[in-house]
Amino acid sequence: MNIEKTTDDSGRTIAEWFEKGIRSFKKPDGIAAVRAFNKVIDLDPAYRHTDGDNPYFYLGKIMEVEGDLEKALVMYTRALAIDRWDEESLIGRGSCYTVLNRHNEAVADFKKVLNINPKNRRVPVGQIYYVIGENYRKKGDWAKAWKWGKKALAEDPLNHRVKQLVDEATAKGSNS
Hints:
Layout: H1 14-26, H2 30-43, H3 55-65, H4 69-82, H5 87-99, H6 103-114, H7 125-139, H8 142-155, H9 160-174
Helix pairs in contact: 1-2, 2-3, 3-4, 3-5, 4-5, 5-6, 6-7, 7-8, 8-9
């Protein structure tokens, strides 16, 4: 943290700028959120709020929603440089990789989420298994799509999307 500059010329602290960014993000007012989060970064590029969040995650989410996936990837990667186990940033980056057909990188990020202590992980494990299986499906790797789909199905046997994945992987895998 930049000890010399914990406030800006307006007298706002870094935490106050961060809170302003969060409030703007939730309105949603992306422009004001980006301004506030960039101010936080100007004051302290490695800033982490007391709850563990950092501005790069929110900037990544804004870029992702706006469709600028390359910039979102940069922001999520910066968030992960501050906290390599930031579940939301791993999922955000993995989702961007999925949309960009960078499936190996997506799977790597989603598998990292599985390595987070289950007591601290917020996303149900079955959902992570499913997105890993979906990435293998998109790659045409039917054996791995089936494997991860079956794991997801064991966690959530009534999930129609997961059942479709397993059924498709079963059918395509037997025709390979």
